[in-house]
Design brief:
The protein is α+β, with helices and mostly antiparallel strands. Helices cover 19% and strands 27% of the residues. A hairpin with a 5-residue loop joins strand 10 and strand 11. Helix 2 crosses helix 3. The protein starts with a helix and ends in a 10-residue tail after the last helix.
Length: 273
């Protein structure tokens, strides 16, 4: 059995000598996908990780950082040296990622990434929970052997393109971060399909784009559309046509109307106008 400690030794770190603290990050309380934050906002993740109680890294030489993926896997994302210094965070200051206010013992620690271990980042998966009681969110490496389950690419799948994209509204938040960013930055004409297969044609422009508009339909809600008051959720969404975000509202509405005509959305669908 290969363990994470074997990986440390292969990189020149002896966990029985150096004090290595293992951290397993997850933010279910705030509904934040920490894996996504690490991928898309690395500096924010590292700042959040470094913000701990003032004595949290006492006697620690290295921090091995793991995050929980959507598949509930414990994925390695980096090794850091603990430089020993820290600065006090003013009590009440909100955390930049979660918004949680600092208490009187919160500090920002100096952690430096060890680049030699970047080859394992987002690739190495360990088993965190072994037989017995749950181990909590941090452990000492020398006392806890973590089996390596795989070393594989954890990169998110590429966006499939507008023709292929189709997804349940109630599961939008499970999409990869890159996909959600694409939907958030795109305006266009969309097709909403209810549980009985009846369509509704709508448009999204400005704000949070398609993603922001579709979130209004979660839980079978009407999103403020009278035609959907009698619709049966849950819904599925797809994209008929993307438009330039700078396009005028009148032009977007004209294109939307053309799609309603083509699909007969007023005659056999939920559209009323």
């Amino acid at each position: 059995m290969i363990t994470f400690n074997d990986t440390l030794r292969a990189g020149g770190i002896e966990p029985d000598v150096a004090r290595v603290k293992l951290l397993r990050h997850i933010e279910t309380r705030n509904r934040i996908d920490v894996h996504d934050v690490w991928r898309g906002q690395r500096e924010l993740f590292e700042s959040w990780q470094a913000r701990q109680r003032d004595d949290f890294f006492n006697g620690v030489d290295y921090v091995a950082s793991f995050v929980v993926s959507r598949a509930s896997e414990t994925v390695f994302v980096g090794l850091y040296t603990v430089d020993g210094g820290w600065t006090e965070v003013v009590a009440g200051t909100p955390d930049p990622m979660t918004g949680t206010p600092a208490d009187s013992r919160t500090a920002l620690h100096q952690l430096t990434r060890v680049p030699d271990f970047d080859i394992y980042a987002d690739r190495l998966v360990i088993r965190w929970f072994l037989a017995g009681k749950a181990p909590g969110w941090w452990q000492w490496a020398h006392r806890n052997l973590k089996p390596v389950l795989e070393i594989a690419t954890q990169q998110e799948a590429p966006f499939p393109g507008w023709l292929a994209f189709q997804h349940p509204v109630d599961e939008l938040d499970t999409l990869p971060g890159g996909w959600r960013q694409t939907l958030r930055s795109t305006s266009g004409i969309y097709l909403l399909t209810d549980a009985r297969g009846v369509h509704y044609v709508g448009s999204a422009k400005g704000g949070d784009g398609l993603l922001g508009r579709w979130r209004a339909y979660r839980g079978g809600r009407s999103g403020g559309n009278l035609g959907l008051k009698g619709a049966t959720g849950p819904y599925t969404v797809s994209v008929l046509q993307t438009v330039d975000p700078a396009m005028s509202d009148e032009t977007v509405e004209r294109i939307e109307s053309l799609w309603k005509n083509k699909l007969g959305a007023r005659e056999v669908g939920h559209n009323l106008n």
